[in-house]
Model the fold of this input.
Amino acid sequence: MNECYFHLAKLYSKNEDTSMQGKECIDKFLKDADESEYTHRILGDAYFLAGCLELRISNGDMEKAIKYHEKAAYYQHPQSLVVCGSHYIESDAKKGNEYLESAFNQHENVFAIDLMLSKSANKGIPISQDVLKKVIHLAESDKYFMYLLGDHLLKGTLQSTENNIVNLPTQQPTEGSVELGRSYLVKAANENHTGASLVLFRLYSDIYEDNEAAKEVLEKALVNPDTTLIDKKTIGQLHYIYANLLLEDEDNIDKAKEHLKVAAYRFENLEARNMLHDQF
Done:
């Protein structure tokens, strides 16, 4: 009978207007729920839902929501581990890092590693080489970890040494780090990681000043862009940028117009719409 409150809470949580009823139901479920009756996964899911609903009804008060996420993290809930890590990484880097490392070790969570790389070394707690070895191993076949390594090597949060990759406080990336990062991004882009294609485009156009390489990256990325990684507004902007690159050669005018139409009408890009109106 008690489990009905959990199911009701999930139903109520789908509608923002019934968040309060959802929170009341999940609190009733959690009041009598214990480990002798429910698995850790169910309890983790329940505390995670409670944390999300508390954040919603308290207008974003994480101090109220975090107590639920901490309990969910105790049961190794992957998203709550990241929520707790993100919450504590600024005020208590060691505690935040422990949550994030657990999220990675238990669930291979790429967002946890992204946060750790962005924050940990600058807080005096670099990622261990054992964790980095696992990340490098995952990047051999997983496009999300390929992108992660490539992006952070270009940002300078990871540095390439003679025979290793290390996490040190952010610094200007070396030539070797940039080249290794580029190679990871190329691999990710070839696996249809649109975010990697976008970083490569900026690298080729802004750093290498190689418009042909930049154009080629965009052309491949726009064949089948992954909308789970890049929002529609950004895709529209990429079609608009690609059209302008094509217009550098008069032979590509018709192709450029097609990309402007896609940007303007499928992705509602105002710049493309104005360009079609003014020039074509």
